[in-house]
Structure formats: structure tokens, C-alpha cells
Amino acid sequence: MAIEEKVLIKLGFDQIREFLKDYCVLRRAKEISETLIPYTDRVQVAGALNETNEGKEFLRGNPLFSVWGAKEIRGYLTRCQRGGVLNPLELLELRDTLRTGRRVRQTLLESKGEFPRLRAIVYTLEPQKPIEDEISHCINEDGAINDNATTELAEYRKDRNRLHQRIRDTLEGILRNSNYQKMLQDALITQRSERYVVPIKQEYRSFFPGIVHDQSGSGATLFIEPMPIVHLGNELREIIFKEQREVQKILAKLSAYVEVSVSVIGTLYEVLARLDFILAKVHLSEQMNGGAPHLASGQEVKLVQARHPLIQGTVIPLTVELGLDFSMLIVTGPNTGGKTVALKTIGLFVAMTQAGLHIPAEEDSRIGVFSQIFVDIGDEQSLEQSLSTFSGHMKNIVHIVNQADSFSLVLLDEIGAGTDPAEGAALAMAILSRLKELGCLVVATTHFGSLKTFAYRTPGVENASVEFDAISLSPTYRLLVGIPGKSNAFNIAYGLGLSPAVLEKAKTFLSERELQVADLLENLKETQREIEMEKIVAHERLFAAEQRNKAVELKSLRQEEEYHRLLDRAREEAGEIVQEARREAEGIIHELKEAIKKEKRKQADIEKARAGLKQLDNKLETAGGKGSKKRGLLPEQVQLGMDVYLSKLRQRGQVIKLPSDNGEIQVHTGALKVTVPLSEVRLVKKEKIKLTGSSGEGRLGIGKANALRNEIDLRGMLVEEANYALDKYLDDAILSGINQVYVIHGKGTGALRAGVREFLNGHPHVRSFRLGQYGEGDLGVTVVELK
User: Fold this and answer.
1) What does the H/E/C string look like for 175-206?
2) pLDDT, tens digit (0-9, with 9 covering 90-100), for 638-687
3) Helix (H) or strand (E) holding 431
4) How would you class 445 by CB atoms within 10 Å of its CB: exposed for 0-12, middle for 13-18, buried for 19 or more?
């Protein structure tokens, strides 16, 4: 059973709806706000609150998220269903709504965090990207049909522009014609009835051939379409009609696309409206500085520092608890002290919670779910304290007593008022007793002193009062639970200027017992005030301690998270380093294996060649006798630093190690150190060559032949410097008759090696080149064969 609308209006819930509507973008969301009612099923209440909680949490990480861009399109969909055609602006609004739906769905589904309810809402939304693209292809952002919407439209517009230009050229020719200068009223081109015309003086009408389409107000000017452009104007009109028909065909085609997907687009719009409504609840919560109360398992109300959202200016927070230690609260105190505001705050916050709205109260507030909220609150602006007032109240209370049950919240303002105080008090106690038997949660306000006694004597019933400052003679609007209040009629009358003598006379009519009770209540209130102040101080200290504890826990948690993050990052980096090192090691091992294989093959070839040479030497020795042995050097002839010629390598070098026992010496040649037998070494004879003639080139060539080495070291040079030096060196090498040279460029970054190879490629002196092999300098040397 739904909570009655008149009750919600009494509590001010209709004004909350108005606030909520202000945050809605779509009309459908505003309609939902207008019909928003509190749920009475606990599952529905929990679901509505969770939606608002998720929306608030999501907006914290996505503050710009909204459904802006979506439009009210339900009327467009209905027209498409009936076979209607949408105009360009309507189609653009529909496209923007589809685009917003697709964007919203993508944002929610791709967002981080747990938002199951919001994701479930958009999961049913089906994007319509093809329709979006087709509309964007055909219509530009200004609402005009694009020229390339269809081939036919492009041709029509091309013809139209061509005809426009021909007509203007013809008319400009007429304006420049000296024969027509005196006939023209003005030298300009204008339009009448969508036809091009020129202004001609009335007296020249018969001399200017053409069709009159209009005349000026004075009749002195005729707007005539010249005869030479009439047929062009007719062609232009035909083209314009064809263009308009093509535009209508395009709009009809787009509307047909929409018609096919009307149900899907309708669902998309409803999803956007629901999201819009949830976001509106979130924005209202932020505006009120509200939060979600804990949902109690039973009928219970606990409000901590609750601030009524409809009161302007400074609001005194209300703290009240009902449903645990007691189920009924009797509030007494002076008029205008805040009793009715307290009633409405309790009722309004229960209704807002059950509607899935946040409430402006502290986070430890707790509210149960009620099947009904019953309210009897008088209107002091329109009701007078009379029999009719009493009858109206009683009629309402009778309805409450007959309908209330253990799942009801009952709020009664000034119960028993409007009749004889004794009878009214007795009737009030009977009504409250009945409501207590029914198990309702009840908050009632009264001025009857006997109801204070009733509250003291009845288990499950508690007194409360609104505080009154006896010094300033004004209410403080604070609710004191556990202490009954008094009306403070004497103090208020004194503050309003009533004579002290009259007040003293009034006190004589009170019994001694009533005066003692008044003094006792005053002492109790003072004691309660002191206790409350101590509670406030203790609460503030506890709150500060909790905040410090939370800050320490948060800091510790962040440090732990940072530690684990750094540890995970270090592990990842270490793993990457190990993997990289492993890959490099495997590459190096592979290269070494390949180099060893090549070296073994090379050594095998060398040994094979040596064996062949040895056989050849043996044959020569046998054939030529001892004379053949004299071709090599004797061990005693060899000296360190001696210049020698290696016959098999066809290279010159210097001796760096004396002969070994097996007759081999070590020679440095180029970038290599080689070990060769003495039989393969020849002594370089230093001959003095006589020059004939005075040729400088001859002397230069012979000088270079004597001094030039078969290697050049380019390390440390820039590419341009190296290329220049290498080019000069190759010229000298050709003059010296060297067939093979070693270019030393080092390994480094490889830039110099690449520059050298690029320079050698296509050089006129170079036959071929290759990188050095194992033992020749590897990648740090390029071996060049010269022509």
C-alpha cells in the first residue's frame, strides 16, 4: 500500500520533487520526479538507495558524466511509427540522443570500479551507430542537407549553381549595356517571386522586353525579368523543384531507418531518462550535503545531526532516536520552539529514504522501512482553536487508529488540543495507549502536563522537550530527549511586556505542587543541559580520535599499497631485465657458436692448404734440389722489426716474434697478427730507384709505395671527416699497388660503420668489401678489395 499523497504534501515531499526536477535534463526524467513516491518494500528501497550510492561514487571519478546532448524524441518516434517524415533538425536531435546513449554506455561499461546496477541499466541499451552515421552523412550541423547525400542531389545543386551564375552574368551584361543605362532605376539585381529581376523606370516599360513580377509602392519602378533570362529562370525553377523532391526522398529514407528501429531507440531513451533521474538524485544529494542512511532491519528511526532541507538560513540540527529503547516520544515545550519542525523532519527523512534519496544527516543515521506514514499536523495560518478544529483533528486521528499497524510511523501535532484540557488530555492518553498496543512508532507534541506524567509511567514511552533560553526568552530549537518541557507561558508573557504584578497574580493560581514540578523540570533541564554539553565534548573528542585513527589507518594503508606497488614494479622490472639479459646472452652464445664453427672450418681449410703446400714444397725440393730451400729466410737472418714480405698472403709486414723451434715467426700485417713458416717469408729489399725526368707524380707514387700501410684508422672521426680521409687513402693505396686494405672504424653505435659502407658502395677504386671475420677485428673492421 502506497503512502498517501496528502501525507507527503504535509511533510514537504512535493517540494523535494520540485528540487529534483531542476537537476533533470530529459522531460521523461522530470515526469519520473513528479510521480516519485516512497517505496514500502524493503528490497525496492535498498535497490533505489544503492542506485543513488553507485551514481554518487561514479560521479566522483567521472565528474563531467551526464546525459547532456540527449533530447526529447518520443514525439519523433511516434510520428515515424505513423509513417511521418522528420525534418533535418529533428533528425539531428535524434542523432544526438543516439550518440549520447552510445557514449554513456561505453563510459559505464569501460569504467573501473564496481557499478553493477548502473552497468545493468545500460547493458540493455543497443547503440545505433549506422543510423547516427547515415544522418551525419546526409545532414550537416546547421540542419542543411549535404551536397554529397546522394549523387542526384549533387548533380542538381551543381546545375542550380551553374544556372544561377549564367543568369547573373546575363543580368550584369544588361546592367553594363549603355542602351539600358537610362532605363534602370538602380543598377542592381534583385529577386521577386523567386525570379531574378532588375528595377526599370515606369516610363520605359514598353522599351524593355521582359515579364513584370512586381512594382514599387509609388508605382515609379517596375521589377522586370529580362526576356533573355526567362528560359534560364524556368530551367532554374525546374532544377529547384527536383532538388526539393530529392531532399524529401532523403528525409523519407532517414525517417524509414528510424521507423525500423523505433522500439530499440525508445528503449535507449528510457535508459537515458532513468540514468538522468539517478544523476539528478546524486546532484540533489550533493546540494544538500546528504548521504545514504543505514537501512535498519526493523521499524526504527535514528537521526544524527539531521538538517531540514527546506528551511532557509541557519538550521539547528536534530538528533533523535526512536524504536530501540522506546517506541513513543512525547515532545513538550513552548510554541514556536521547533516541535512541529522536528515532527516534519522525522517524517520527511523517512519518506526521502524510502524513495531512494539521500538525507542531510550524519552517516551513522539509521532508518527502517514503514508501510505507512500517518500525519496529523495543523495549519496555524488557516486553522483556529475551535470545535471545528477539534473535529477535523479527531476525524483524522480516527482514520489513523483504524489503519495503523506495527509497520506504521505516526506523527501527531498538538494531540488533544481544541477542546477542554482535561478531556483532551484524557483522550490523548487513550489514543496513545491504543497506538502503543498496535506497535506503531509514534512522535506526538503536546502542552498537556498530564501527558508528561503518562510518559514517565508508561514503559516504552519517553519524554522530550524543545529547549528554551530563559535569559534571551527565545527558543534554541534543540530537542532534549529524556526531559519533559514546559510551555514557559510566564516567561514569554514577560518578554512580550506583561506587567510583573499580573504575572505574580497568575502564579498564585497555581498550586504548590505545580510550582514544585515546574522548578523540578527547570533543574532537570539544567542538569540535562550540562550532561548534553559533556556528551558533546566527549563526542567531539571521540570524533577527533576516530579521525586521527582513520588518518593513521589511511596513511598506513597507502604506505602498504605503495610498498606493494613498488615491490610489484621492481619485480616486473627485474623480470624484464632478466629476460632481456637472457635474450642477449642467448644471442651472444649463438654468435659465438657460429664464430667457433666458422673458425673451425677456417682452421680446417688452413690445415688442408698447409698440407697441400707442404706436399708441393716436397715435390719442388725433390725436383730442384737444395737450391729451392734457399728461397726462404734462415732463422739467424730474422730480426725484430724487420720488414718482410709474406708470399702466400701477398702482404708486407713487420716481425714481432723471433722464430720458434718449428721454424715459424709472428708477423704484424695490417690489422692482423699472423704466424707463418720461414719458407713463406721473403726479405724486403730496399732498392734505390732512380727517377727519370722531373715527374712529381712519379716521385709521389714511389714515396707512397714505400711508406703507405694497408690499414687506415678512422675511429673518433665524424662520418664526413672519415669519408674524406678514406677517399684520400684509397687513392694512395691504388698508387701504391695495394690490393686489399683494412678500414678500422670500431664498433660503437654503428653510425661510422654505416657511413663507411655507404661511401664504399659504388666507389670507383673498390671491387668489393666485407666486414672483418673472427681474428680480423670482427664488426670493427671493413676489409676492402681494390681494383
Assistant:
1) HHCHHHHHHECCCCCEEECCEEEEEEEHHHHH
2) 888 788 888 777 778 888 888 888 888 888 876 677 888 888 888 876 54
3) helix 421-438
4) buried
Q: For residues 332 and 480, what is the distance between their CA atoms, to the nearest angstrom? A: 10
Of the pLDDT bands very low, low, confident and very high (cuts 50, 70, 90), residue 702 is very low
Secondary structure letter of residue 603 according to DSSP: H
- 147 contacts 203 by C-beta, under 8 angstroms: no
Q: How far is Cα 204 from Cα 288, in angstroms, rounded to an integer?
A: 79
Answer for the pair 413, 339: CB distance below 8 angstroms, yes or no: yes
Could you report how far apart the first and last alpha carbons of the chain are, in Å? 108
What is the DSSP track for 290-321?
-BPPEE-SSS-EEEEEE--TT--S----EEEE
Alpha carbon 763 to chain centroid distance? 60
Contact 629, 621 (CB under 8 A): yes
* Cell numbers standing for residue 782: 671493413
Closest to 492 (Cα-Cα) out of 504, 467, 474: 474
In tens, the pLDDT along 248-264 reads 999 999 999 999 999 99
**Burial of 242: CB neighbours in 10 Å, binned 0-12, 13-18, 19+:** middle
Please state, in angstroms and rounded to a whole number, the distance separating the CA atoms of residues 55 and 48: 11
Using an 8 Å Cβ cutoff, are 192 and 223 in contact? yes
Strand bridging mode 711-713 / 740-744 = parallel
CA distances from 238 to 157, 160, 247, 267, 340 (A): 12, 9, 14, 43, 77
Backbone angles phi, psi at 376, to 5 degrees: -130, 90
Distance CA 676, CA 275 (A): 91
Burial of 420 (0-12, 13-18, 19+ CB in 10 A): exposed
Of 346, 297, 330, nearest to 460 by C-alpha is 330
The answer for residues whose C-beta is within 8 angstroms of residue 417's C-beta and 6 or more apart is 378, 385, 389, 390, 393, 424, 446, 447
193 with 214: CB under 8 angstroms?
Answer: yes
Of the candidates 685, 588, 98, 695, which has an alpha carbon nearest to the alpha carbon of residue 580? 588
Whole-Å CA distances, 220 to 161, 224, 665: 33, 13, 125
